[in-house]
Amino acid sequence: MRRICFLLRVRPDRLAEYRERHANVWPEMRQALRETGWGNYTLFLAEDGLLVGYLETDDFDAARAGMEAREVNARWQAEMAEFFVALDGSRPDEAMKPLDEVFHLD
Q1: Would you say domain 2-83 falls under CATH 3.90.550.10?
Q2: How far apart are CA 59 and CA 63, in angstroms?
Q3: Could you list the active site residues?
Q4: What Rg do the C-alpha atoms of the chain give, in angstroms?
Q5: Per-residue pLDDT of the chain (106 residues; tens, 9 = 90+)
Q6: Given Cys at both, which of 41, 44, 80, 101 links 52, Cβ 3.0 to 4.6 Å?
Q7: CB neighbours (10 Å) of residue 38?
Q8: How far apart are CA 59 and CA 27, in angstroms?
């Protein structure tokens, strides 16, 4: 199982709405994430907009490709793109760059 951590930045003026949207993630989006291998997927949001994402998966490339093929993901990413800073034309899920793991206490 591979642990993945990534960072994104939410627009400071959209933090409350971002939190609200994630309190009500569509059931079909939750199901798609589970079915495509996004285990223990967690998002942490700081008051300044720093978003830390964490997930566990056997194959991150396959998990991303699985979501890419889901219509619900295209809808979700289109709605969520406006919440982020500096995506440079990418969708939020395309901007997720895994951080290097340098230590893990097992």
Answers
A1: no
A2: 6
A3: 22
A4: 14
A5: 999 999 999 999 999 999 999 999 999 999 999 999 999 999 999 999 999 999 999 999 999 999 999 999 999 999 999 999 977 767 888 888 999 999 999 8
A6: 44
A7: 19
A8: 23
